[in-house]
Design a protein that fits this description.
Number of helices: 13
Helix content: 55-70%
Bound molecules: Phenylacetyl coenzyme A
Order of helices and strands: HHHHHHHHHHEEHHH
Strand order of the largest sheet: 1-2
Radius of gyration: 21 Å
Largest sheet: 2 strands, antiparallel
Distance between the termini: 45 Å
Shape: globular
């Protein structure tokens, strides 16, 4: 069968809403697109542990420390499911991790901003996890089975993360004048970078068309960004916080919040590795990888001994 016919058959399966599984035939480009997107997603979860991890030792109470510890551990778990899901496409974990460590793979721009105060932990939970849920609820319906299934569990955990973040935001917004100032300052710093998480404008998003055609994405970057804005402006106003956007207006006809222009120059600068924390994050990641070598060696040795003793027993 010719390539064109195979591609048409694959497209028919997608159009019929079928799920693609690891051993199914798939166009090479579909496989490559998924490896790119899923591995970058995994890296984002792992690098994403760093900004909040920075505050674990300085949490204001034991309760907050326990919540933050579990949240950061959950993000590690998400990274691991996603590396495993990427392996089903034939890309080894070592290979994709090396791409990150060598600076060849991207991870989400949002994690290249600093966490300057405890309020940032609250705002990351509310806005960053809130953005992740909107994007990932769509991906839970993606055409590739292992990715979609990983997203179902990840979304459940992310929605708890968002709730704990919003609860903390509401507590601070209802607190002393200093706490109110701290939380507003944090929203002012994180709002625009969070909007950038959804990626470039649709006109400037080279991957969207193909990903939508193949049912990996079902909404565009701008559509998801708009859902995020509509939901979070309302949540900000409910707890008395301002959104740092003088152009924000509610359009009664469309029932959407219209917002100002994103600073795309800043976005591309961060994506290219020149954001406020890019170098710091990569240095921390490389150091953690080197320091973890003994753990990987010990796990391999344990597996070798297990196999030996199983072979002896049989
Ligand atoms: N940052 O053509 P498009 C989380 C790149 S997880 C950096 O529109 P696409 C959990 C893009 O890769 C957050 N790079 O690309 C958590 C492409 O470059 P490439 C991560 C970006 O794939 C919470 C180029 O620009 N989530 O937060 C960004 O159609 C709290 C052109 O862009 C995911 O990864 C960006 N923001 O759409 C953890 C979800 N945006 O690769 C800890 C899965 C775009 O061709 C604490 N990924 N680029 O060289 C996706 O949904 C999509 O890949 C997008 C980009 C929406 C990120």
């Amino acid at each position: 069968m010719g390539e064109e016919k195979r591609n048409q058959q694959f497209q028919n399966r997608i159009d019929n809403g079928e799920t693609i599984e690891p051993k199914d035939a798939m166009p090479d480009r579909y496989r490559q697109q998924l490896i790119r997107m899923m591995s970058q997603h995994a890296h984002s979860e792992i690098v994403g542990m760093l900004p909040e991890g920075n505050w674990i030792t300085r949490a204001p109470s034991l309760r907050r420390k326990m919540i933050l510890l579990s949240k950061v551990q959950d993000e590690a778990g998400h990274g691991l499911y996603l590396y495993s899901a990427t392996e089903t496409l034939g890309a080894s974990r070592q290979e994709v991790i090396n791409q990150l460590l060598e600076g060849k793979a991207k991870y989400s721009s949002i994690f290249n901003y600093p966490t300057l105060s405890w309020a940032d932990v609250a705002v990351i939970g509310w806005l960053v996890d809130g953005a992740a849920i909107i994007n990932q609820t769509m991906l839970a319906r993606s055409s590739y089975g292992p990715y979609a299934r990983a997203m179902v569990r990840i979304c459940k955990e992310e929605s708890f993360h968002k709730k704990q973040g919003y609860e903390m935001v509401a507590t601070m917004a209802d607190g002393t004048p200093e706490q109110q100032e701290m939380i507003q300052d944090s929203v002012n710093r994180w709002w625009w970078p969070t909007l950038m998480m959804f990626g470039p404008h649709d006109d400037d998003s080279p991957n969207s068309e193909e990903l939508i055609k193949w049912g990996v994405k079902s909404k565009t970057n701008d559509e998801l960004r708009q859902s995020f804005v509509d939901r979070h402006v309302q949540e900000a106003h409910t707890v008395g916080l301002e959104i740092p956007d003088p152009d924000l207006t509610f359009n009664e006809e469309t029932e959407h919040w219209e917002f100002g222009e994103i600073n795309w120059e800043e976005f591309w600068n961060v994506v290219k590795g020149n954001g406020p924390m890019n170098r710091h994050r990569m240095k921390a990641r490389r150091e953690a990888h080197t320091k973890g070598q003994w753990v990987r060696d010990a796990a391999k040795e344990y597996a070798r001994k297990q196999q030996l003793s199983e072979e002896k027993a049989s």
